[in-house]
Amino acid sequence: MATTLLGKYLGMLHKIISAFSEILICAQVASRGDIMLATTLLGKYLSMYANDEEAWEELASLYLQVSTSCMFCQRSRQHWCG
Question: Is the pTM of this model over 0.85?
Answer without folding.
Answer: no
